[in-house]
Amino acid sequence: MTCTLTRLLLVVAASLLLPVTASAQAFRTYLASYGNDANPCTVSLPCRLLPAALVAVANNGEIWMLDSANFNSGTVNVAKNVIIQAIPGQVGSIVPVAGNPAMTIAAGKVVTLRNVSMVTNANSPGSDAIQMSTGRLSVEDSVLQSSSNGIVINGTGAASVRNTTFRGGSYGIFAAEGATVSVSGCNFAGISIAAIYATAASAITTDVTVRNSDFANNAFTAVWSYVSTASAVARITVANSSFGGNGYGVVSSMDNAGSAIASVGSSVIAGNGIGLYQRGMGAVTEVMGDNVIRNNVTLSSGTITTASRM
Amino acid sequence: MKRHATRILAFASLLALSWLAQAQAFRAYLASYGSDANPCTVAQPCRLLPAALNAVLDGGEIWILDSANYNAATVDIAKSVSILAIPGQTASVVSVAGNPAITISTAGVSVALHNMVITQNVGNPGLHGIVMTNGSALTVEDSLFANITGAGIKVTGIPARVYVKDTTMRNMGTAVDAQDGPTVAISHSQFIATAGLNVYSYAGTTRMDVTDSVIAGGGGFGVSVNTALAGGVATATVTRTTISGVYSSGLHCSTNNVGTATLYVVNSTSTGNGYGYDQSGTCVLRTLGNNFIGGNTADNGTLTSQPLR
């Protein structure tokens, strides 16, 4: 009798527990080239593609890529707070493909990418590497090489980008409509329009800060703040960086109205077409008086302001 | 007689073997495939940090051989030790159940962490990353702190030396919180979406030097220097560092008109913050004339010019 009761209790307990276990989201989920999306995304039974790991991971959790492979087949829509990283020594690839972005981030979400490669699929090129509007994005130790843009933030979101390389495409970082971006230790090369572009088309401030970064051989501009709307503010502040081989180095320009500011200090601007450029009444290109600006085809165009230092 | 001597030798051998079984090694090893019943050798690694801490000598090293999580609860480090994940791997230590991931509370110990990830178990959140209430020194290199409710590193009430290098902290309550005694040196590090670096003294002397770093975003201060009682001395220097997008103030320097607080700013940028600088009370905010402080919503208080020499 006792034995039967014990068995019954065990069966009931197991039946209650199983559905919970099957649907429970883990703090950390795993991907691998040898994984399978039918797996539970554990370290011993990893999944294969990011969407499966995103379903399996808890909000504020982590996804670890255990080996080097590509981990998406279409746009990855990230709709929870999550850290996505390839373990050191490996590279996790997320490709823009078929005219679409590699990743979109839902409004208000906090997402970190670490040690990933976002290079467009050459056979079926995609668009941007990452698109977001609000929320918060960190990108660290990664490579972004899209056929369109690296990171597009169109809204009041914030991004920090560290130790990351941007190659090719139209814009490396496109920051608009109140975005706040911090860039440090990054390389921007071979970008056709602007390595970093800050703009606003309404009464809002877009703000980009750059430190310890290199801008090389970008066809048109390296950093460019631009507005054309009343009360719109676009601002880029650069320190301890180098500009070489770009069409334009540091640019502020405006049409009609608004305020575009590009400030540069403690930096080297050499070997560009035009080192410093300013156009329009509301545009300010300012130097801190401690830059090395030499050997550009044209030193500057427009009015260059020397900012006071404190 | 000969037989007796043989027996003595056998007994001595047994004693030696017993001692060897319990001997602590200069280097202990952990791996995802380890077991805490193992001796923590490279061939038979342990699974969790407490076992490796028992197995390692004071002043020894713990090597983590592959990527996994290596604690189930707070890890109290009570001996001098270096803990590192080998290059190419990532070792996680999580804060869980309202507690810190790591505590250091033993006098005289020096602890070094290299290539570690300190984060929070979202299913059962902890509080702080590392809490140091005693000990001699803490070094953190090439590491990542993320998504922690409290402070990444909290050091209070001791004259310990703390070094943080090439480390990222993001989405934290506070990045580094130094109070009442420690001396902290931070270089080549990044603090994202977190209340930044706090230097606070009720009593004793607290110091922090920040170089070549980035503080971006976050709801509190970038670098904050405070004293609240007459005996407190708090000093910070910020060199070649960018502070941007901080909701409150990039550079914060305050006293309640008691204590001695000083913040030096050298060749740095404070932009896009609520306040570029916010000085109040008798705190002295010294700038060396080579900083860019602009593009902030406002500034408050007084800057004191400090000549370059």
Number of strands of chain B: 32
| Shape type of chain A | elongated
Basic shape of chain B? elongated
Taking the sheet with the most strands of chain B, its summary is: 12 strands, parallel
SS class of chain B: mainly beta
Poorly predicted ranges of chain A (pLDDT <50, ≥5 residues)?
Answer: 1-6, 8-23
Number of helices of chain A: 2
Please describe the biggest sheet of chain A, giving its number of strands, its sense, and whether it closes into a barrel.
Answer: 12 strands, parallel
Radius of gyration of chain B: 23 Å
3D structure, described in words:
The complex is a heterodimer of chains A (310) and B (309). Chain A has helices at 2-23, 50-56, and strands spanning 26-31, 57-65, 69-70, 76-78, 82-86, 92-93, 103-105, 110-114, 116-119, 130-132, 136-140, 143-145, 149-154, 158-162, 165-167, 171-176, 180-184, 187-189, 194-200, 205-211, 214-216, 221-227, 233-239, 242-244, 248-254, 259-265, 268-270, 274-279, 283-287, 292-294, 298-301, 304-306. With 310 residues, chain A is mainly β. In chain A, strand 1, helix 2 (50-56) and strand 2 (57-65) form a beta-alpha-beta unit. The radius of gyration of chain A is 23 Å and the shape is elongated. Chain B has 309 residues and is mostly beta strands. Chain B has helices at 2-22, 49-55; strands at residues 25-30, 56-64, 68-69, 75-76, 81-85, 91-95, 102-104, 110-114, 116-120, 130-132, 137-141, 144-146, 151-156, 161-165, 168-170, 174-179, 183-187, 190-192, 195-201, 204-211, 214-216, 223-227, 232-239, 242-244, 249-255, 260-266, 269-271, 275-279, 284-287, 292-293, 298-300, 304-305. In chain B, the strands form 3 sheets. In chain B, strands 1-2-5-8-11-14-17-20-23-26-29-32 form a 12-stranded parallel sheet. In chain B, strands 3-6-9-12-15-18-21-24-27-30 form a 10-stranded parallel sheet, with no helix packed on it. Chain B has a 10-stranded parallel sheet with strand order 4-7-10-13-16-19-22-25-28-31, with no helix packed on it. The termini of chain B are far apart. Chains A and B meet through strand 2, strand 8, strand 11, strand 14 and strand 17 of A and strand 3 and strand 30 of B.
